[in-house]
Specification:
The complex is a heterodimer of chains A (about 110) and B (about 120). Chain A is mainly beta and about 110 residues long. In chain A, a hairpin with a 5-residue loop joins strand 9 (about 90-95) and strand 10. Chain A starts with a strand and ends with a strand. Chain A contains no helices and eleven strands. Chain B is about 0% helix and about 50% strand. Chain B contains no helices and twelve strands. Chain B has strands at about 5, 10-15, 20, 25, 30-40, 45-50, 55-60, 65-70, 75-80, 85-95, 105, 110-115. In chain B, strands 2, 5, 6, 10, 11 and 12 form a six-stranded mixed beta sheet that branches. Chain B has a four-stranded antiparallel beta sheet with strand order 3-9-8-7, with no helix packed on it. In chain B, a hairpin with a 5-residue loop joins strand 7 (about 55-60) and strand 8. The chains are: A mainly beta (about 110), B mainly beta (about 120). At the A-B interface, strand 4, strand 5, strand 9 and strand 10 of A face strand 5, strand 6, strand 10 and strand 11 of B.
């Protein structure tokens, strides 16, 4: 299993600024992912964080807006750049292991004013 | 492409009655199927998974799910609902041919259990 922590847990930011969210896993995992969830709605995959190389983005998400780093097997960051109110959402870090399960962090609740 | 559908936005059931939350999927290969639950202002909690083996999978909190390959379904069930089961439930799928990829989630079903 894997326990995932995220920082910050929530933040209120002004439009035009950027926020970096940190994700730490307590064990080495094979894959790490970032999702977005608007309140009461489903999870949308933003990207797969690849260790030591550029992240793989899903349709509709671009690196300039959501730069992602994964310097090692247990840590990743997601930056939400040049924020607008439409970016207000919950951002979830996730990781999968060899047992096929996928674990989730508690989420970062972002409000952009 | 893989996808998952949860046809019901909301399911209402009385406490003590059986509950079913529906899920259907579409994958190219064999499906890896999951159910998660999310309580208000809480993170996503894993309930159960089907990878291979018995079609009836038992999970946390008395929940179970039945894998039906011919109907491409993976409905979540519980014999006797509790008020505390009220939450948002997500079905998710991964194609076995893409084992290293992320889960794809359904839109979610809100379960409301009345006392």
């Amino acid at each position: 299993s894997a326990v995932i922590s995220q920082k910050p847990s929530r933040d209120i930011c002004q439009r035009g600024t950027s926020l970096t969210i940190q994700c730490q896993v307590d064990s080495q995992v094979t894959m790490m992912f970032w999702y977005r969830q608007q309140p009461g709605q489903s999870l949308t995959l933003i990207a797969t964080a690849n260790q030591g190389s550029e992240a793989t983005y899903e349709s509709g998400f671009v690196i300039d807006k959501f730069p992602i780093s994964r310097p090692n097997l247990t840590f990743s960051t997601l930056t939400v750049s040049n924020m607008s109110p439409e970016d207000s959402s919950i951002y979830l870090c996730s990781a999968s292991t060899h047992d096929y399960e996928q674990y989730f962090g508690p989420g970062t609740r972002l409000t952009v004013t | 492409a893989q996808s998952v559908a949860q046809p019901e936005d909301q399911v209402n059931v009385a406490e003590g009655n059986p509950l079913t939350v529906k899920c259907t999927y579409s994958v190219s290969g064999n499906p890896y199927l999951f159910w998660y639950v999310q309580y208000p202002n809480r993170g996503l909690q894993f309930l159960l998974k089907y990878i291979t083996g018995d079609n009836l999978v038992k999970g946390s909190y008395g929940f179970e799910a039945e894998f039906n390959k011919s109907q491409t379904s993976f409905h979540l069930k519980k014999p006797s609902a509790l008020v505390s089961d009220s939450a948002l439930y997500f079905c998710a799928v991964r194609d076995s041919y893409q084992a290293g990829t992320a889960l794809i989630f359904g839109k979610g079903t809100t379960l409301s259990v009345s006392s």
